[in-house]
Structures are given as C-alpha cells and as structure tokens.
Design a protein that fits this description.
Two copies of one chain form a homodimer. By secondary structure, chain A is α+β, with helices and mostly antiparallel strands. The first copy, chain A, folds into two domains: 101 residues, Jelly Rolls (Sandwich); 106 residues, Arc Repressor Mutant, subunit A (Orthogonal Bundle). The first copy, chain A, is built from seven helices and twelve strands. In chain A, the strands form three sheets. Chain A has a four-stranded antiparallel β-sheet. In chain A, strands 2-7-4-5 form a four-stranded antiparallel β-sheet. A four-stranded antiparallel β-sheet of chain A has the order 9-10-12-11. In chain A, a hairpin with a 2-residue loop joins strand 9 and strand 10. In chain A, helix 3 crosses helix 5 and helix 3 crosses helix 6. At the A-B interface, strand 5, helix 2 and helix 7 of A face strand 5, helix 2 and helix 7 of B. The structure holds a DNA duplex.
Chain lengths: 245, 245
DNA sequence: CGCTCAGTTGACGAATTTCAAAGATGGTGG
DNA sequence: CCACCATCTTTGAAATTCGTCAACTGAGCG
C-alpha cells in the first residue's frame, strides 16, 4: 500500500504502524491534512468530538497557564492518535501544535464505533495506542513530580529514542529532534536555561552528543537509562505496541 | 435500580454515574469486587488486558521510582474507570491502590467491544470518561511542570471538589478526603512537609478549613480557583461529563 | 553586513526539600 | 477507663535545586 504522504523530518522514512495501516485500509479515501511547523491544529477549549491520527511528522499536546507558561503534555509521533473529545465531553483539554511539518487525518466516532468486525479490530488497536499514551504520560508525570532535572531530561531523550526506533526514525542511538531547548523545557518542566545546563553536562560526561543541529545521539544508553531511572526492557513493554509477528 | 454496594467514605450516598448504570444494566450479574483501604489491586508491570470500573470508594493510580518515591497519577472516584492494558499492550503501567475501602468490577474487552448497539453506546460513554481522565491528568501535569506549591495544592483540592459535587459526595464546599498529607504530596509532587505548610497557609488565609479530621471545607472557592489558576466553568466542561438531560 | 533567534554561561535569589523534634490523634490492650 | 503506641500533623533551621536576570556567542538569513 502506497500513500501520498510527504516525508517528515525523519532521517529515514517511517514504517507505518499497524494502526495507521488498519485505519487507512478501512477508509482509503479520507483526506490527508497537512500542518506547517508551528501551526496550531486545535486550541484548548475548542469544541472537539473527534480524534486526530498523526500520519507523519511531530506534534505536541500542550496546555497553557494564564501567565503564558506552557506545558507539553505529550509528544506525538507517526501512528499516535489523540482522543480530543467525545460526544458527552466535547471540549478539548489540550492544544495540538505541529512541531514539524506534519500530516494527519481526522478520526470520528462514526468511523470507529460501528458494529463491523473490522472496526472492532480497529478499536482494539486504538485502545492499545491509548494505553501506551497513558503509560508515557504517567512516566512523565512521575518524573515531573519526583525527579531531578537530570532525570527528567534523560527521560525525555530516552522516551523519544525508544519510540522513534521501531518507526525507523532512529538508528544507532541517533535521531533528529525538532524541538528547541525551550520546548524541551516545556516538556519536562524546566526552564530553557536549565535544560541547556543539564544537556551540556550529559554531553560533557560523554552520555549524549550533538552530531548536527537538531540532532541528538545517545552514546551511552546504559548510563542515560540509569539517570532517567528507567528499566529499558520494562519501559519498552509499557510504551510500545507488541509487534504483530 | 438497586445495587448491593456498601457505602463508602462519602458523607452522602453516591448517585451512580451514567457509565456505571449503563455497564451494570448490560451485565447485571457481574461480580462486584471489594478492596480494603491500602490494598493494591494491580502492581506496575503486572499483566493486564482489562479495565477496572470503580463503583464505590476512592482509588489511586500510582507509579514508584527505584528509590521508593511515589507519584499518584490519578485519583479515581466512583464511576471512573482505568484502561489498564490492552491485548497488544498488556502490561500495566501503574499500580492501583484503594485509598479507602472500595468496590469495583472488571471490564473486559469482550464485555465492551461487541457489535450490539448497547455496547456501542457503552463505548461512547467509555470514550467520554477516558477524555475526562486525560483532561485531568493534563491539568495535573501542567501544574507539576509549571506551578508553585500553592497552586498545585489548591488545584488538587479543587479537582476533587469539582468531581465529588456531581456525585453527591460534596456539598457546601465540604467533602471528606481520605488521603494523608503524605499522599496529597504524592499526588501534587511535593514533600509532605511542604503540603502541610501550604495547606496551613490556605487555612490561615481563610480559604479552606478543616471541620473534622479527614474532611475539608472550601470557604472561598473564588480565591482557591485564582490560586490554582483555574477557570472553574471551563474546568468543569473539561473534566465532567455532560449530564444527560 | 547586520539582524534575529537559539544556545551557552555566570551570579544571584527564591522556592522547596531535608532533617529534626515537638504536638495531636486514634486505636488497642490491659 | 486509662496508658501506650503508631501514625499523622505541625513547626523551625539548614541545605539544595532550580529559576531569573543578564551578557555573550554562534549560526542562519535577508
């Protein structure tokens, strides 16, 4: 199956996850939408009773305080979807922003909640993706609540790496990261200044490096996991879908 | 419809939420399970491919770091459910602990993913409950990342109050809170000591009071909302289900 | 060439944790 | 009924972490 999806920011083309295949097989004629880097697709408080299925590129779910402080709730990668709202709860709790140029499609209840067996299988996958979304949000919350700056930063890099790898978007510890330190700070709950200090230290300690602007390489996965307080094997089980064999 | 559910810690009997009604109408003969205060129903890393629907009492989703620090990801109230795992992602990312004596039932995919219209309606409700769960987790994450101790604490009290009210478990700003300051700290990411300081200050400022041990009264909802950086009306829309009229 | 924006670094101050100890409170067994 | 125990709350003082402010650097771009 070939799709008219533009290449994103990845260093290699994404292998589509099973959920994207499933959904696009079911609805082959759905319009694919595009968003430019920096564009907001949804704003907090908007009416929303559907979901977004990300096909290519990076997006962020975020919330903002009255004083302008922003927190990124979750980073979305190809194959992820956001349950934005539902008919009895139709208000979006988060904004959705494109971190890179991105393409996506809109998933409505009618296109997923039908009685057909195909849809039942789709729902099984959707539930699984939801579970992994919750799992990584929980990990993030744990670190925002109880961990140091170093641990949070290490965690963020590790989460992204672990998720990018099965998509073919990271290899040999190296991946492109289309986020400024400001945005990384919004993700892990630190000031941009402190993100810089923390990452510099990781760099000086030989744990990560910076082969090109916008790219990261993890040189010592073991050490990074230790700093992030992560058991990699368990972590992968929690936030990745089992590969259909 | 009358159910053999023991009264929880509430100061008034809970009116069951629509989702509980719906599910129990659909499966009237399901065993209701009980858990004693402090008991863990699920541990992080356990195999899990089903969900828990809380009928009565309080539960907490939590995660623990290797050094023993714990973060409460979400507090569950009657009518909430947790999507613990799914067939392609069958590992529980959180532990589930009873904060008070509680009763619950187990919700499996077979009991929700069928083609029957009743199940489709149940799924609509489940999706809505999921949306509200995500909404409050996002609010919490925002505060752990970007807010002061006062704001976090105020938020926690407010979230619980707003959720308890439509269940008939809070009236006139007053509700019972079966959590020690230690646990509140695990929820909002503060040390028990600082929770104490912060709540004492709110008390001295006449914003909350403490009519009895284990009970809280919000005396100045307006002020508490301001401290928590919350727009109450919008907040209610995001974390509450629309009442079926 | 100069502009802007992201990253970097230092110095300082504020918020929170940790450590320690002293009240409450409730439950339990004598 | 009381004494004791464990647990929770409260408060103070010291130590730490991180945010803010400010200045400088470097890369990309018109």
């Amino acid at each position: 199956m070939t799709l008219p999806i533009p290449s994103g920011t990845g260093i290699a083309p994404a292998r589509f996850s099973s959920i994207v295949d499933e959904y696009l097989n079911l609805w082959p004629h759905l319009p694919v939408q595009h968003a430019a880097k920096g564009q907001f697709i949804v704003d907090e408080g908007d009416f929303a009773d559907s979901s977004i299925l990300l096909l290519d590129g990076w997006m962020a779910l975020s919330k903002t305080l009255p004083d302008g402080e922003r927190q990124i709730i979750d980073v979305l990668l190809p194959g992820d979807f956001v349950l934005l709202g539902a008919s009895v709860a139709p208000v979006a709790a988060c904004s959705v922003e494109a971190l890179s140029d991105a393409s996506y499609t809109v998933l409505t209840p009618e296109r997923a909640n039908g009685p057909e067996p195909v849809m039942a299988r789709l729902r099984t996958l959707l539930a699984a993706v939801l579970v992994t979304t919750q799992a990584r949000t929980a990990e993030l919350l744990l670190r925002l609540g109880k961990s140091s700056a170093a641990s949070r930063t290490a965690y963020a890099l590790l989460e992204l790496y672990v998720r990018l790898e099965p998509l073919g978007l990271a290899s040999d510890g190296r991946f492109s990261l289309p986020m400024t330190q400001q945005k990384i700070g919004e993700f892990v709950g630190l000031s941009n200044v402190h993100v810089c200090r923390t990452m510099r230290r990781l760099e000086r300690d030989g744990i990560i490096s910076h082969p090109a602007p916008g790219e990261i390489r993890i040189d010592d996965l073991e050490a990074l996991s230790r700093i992030a307080d992560i058991d990699l094997a368990l972590f992968r089980e929690e936030i990745l879908l089992r590969r259909p064999s």
